[in-house]
Amino acid sequence: MSTYLRASATPLAQAHDALLLDLDGVVYRGAAAVEHAADSIAAAAAAGAQPVYVTNNAGRPPQVVADQLTDLGIPTDPAHVMTSSLAAATTLARDLPAGSTVLCVGGPGLRQAMEAQGYRVVTDAHEKPDAVAQGYGPEVGWAQLTEAAYAIGQGARYVATNLDATLPTERGMAVGNGSLVAAVVNATGVRPTSSGKPEAGIFHEAAALVGATRPVVVGDRLDTDLAGARAAGMPGLQVLTGVHQAYDLFAAQPHERPDMLALDLRGVLEPHPEVVPTGDHLGGWRCRDAVVRVSGTDLHVVRDDVAQALASLTEITLDELRAACCAAWEAADGGTGLALAPRPLAVVV
C-alpha cells in the first residue's frame, strides 16, 4: 500500500462514522450548493456517516449555518455545526472561568459562542476585559481593532478564531480574519492563540458533537482542512471543487497532504484504490491502470506505453492524479525539485 495515499476497500461512508465537512468549496459556493453535495451527504448519512459541518467562519451562529444548509436541500440542525467561534470559546474555557469578561471583535456568532460559555461580552477596553476574542465580521474596522489593541496592551489574553489571510467570496478572495489579526499583532506585538482550522482541537470537538470515533475530514484547502486532519490524526479526503486543485497537490508539504482524493463529495460513497510503486527498473507509481514516472525534473504520464510530460497535458484522470501525487511527493521527499508551474489541469473520470 502507498505510504502517501491510503486505500479503502469499502466506501468511506461505510468505513467512517462521521464526515467532518468543510463548507465553502466543498458543500456550497456562495449561495449555491456544490453539484452532487446534497445527494452525497444524504446517502452518506443513510450509510451511517453523520455529517458535521466544520467552518472557520466565525461570524455566523450555528443556527444561521444550519438554516442556509437546509435551504440548499441539506437538512441540518445547529448541533451538527462546529464553528471556529465555538472552538475559541472552548479554548478560553480551559483556563478562563465563567463570568470573566471578553471583548469580542467579530460578528454575532462570536458573541453568541462566548455568552453560551458563560462569559460577559463587552466591546470597549475601558471595561478591563480578561480576554480578547477576534473573529471574522463584515463590520469589523479600525475602531474595533483599536479597542482590541488597547485591551491586549492592558494585559488581556488574546485568542483568534482562525488565521486565514483570505476569505473566498463570489467576487474572489476577500480580506480574511488572519489579515485583520495581523493588524492587531503589528500594533501590540502579541500573537493570539488560534482555535480554528488547522488546529487539531476544532476537529476533535466536531467529532465529539456526534460521538464519532472514526471520522474522516473532507476539505478543499490543503493549508486548513487537510493540515488540520493531519494535526488531529484523522484521515483527510481532498475534493477538487474549491480552492486547491491538481497542481497545488503536487507541491503539498508533508503536514498538509491528503490521504485520499476525489473529484467531489461523491468520493465519500466510493472505495478508494491502492496507489503503489510500479516495482520495475523504471520506477514510478501505479493506480490501477494509471502509471506516472519521474524523469529528471518532470512528471510523465504513461499512456499506451508512451510517456507524456505532465506539463504538456490539459486533462488527466483521477487515477493518474493519484499516481502523480505519490510520484511528486516521493521526489520532493528525496530532494528532487520538480519543474511544475501551477496552471489549469482538468481532472476527469
UniProtKB/TrEMBL annotation:
<dbReference type="Pfam" id="PF13344">
    <property type="entry name" value="Hydrolase_6"/>
</dbReference>
<dbReference type="InterPro" id="IPR023214">
    <property type="entry name" value="HAD_sf"/>
</dbReference>
<protein>
    <submittedName>
        <fullName>Haloacid dehalogenase</fullName>
    </submittedName>
</protein>
<dbReference type="InterPro" id="IPR036412">
    <property type="entry name" value="HAD-like_sf"/>
</dbReference>
<dbReference type="InterPro" id="IPR006357">
    <property type="entry name" value="HAD-SF_hydro_IIA"/>
</dbReference>
<dbReference type="Pfam" id="PF13242">
    <property type="entry name" value="Hydrolase_like"/>
</dbReference>
<dbReference type="GO" id="GO:0016791">
    <property type="term" value="F:phosphatase activity"/>
</dbReference>
<dbReference type="GO" id="GO:0005737">
    <property type="term" value="C:cytoplasm"/>
</dbReference>
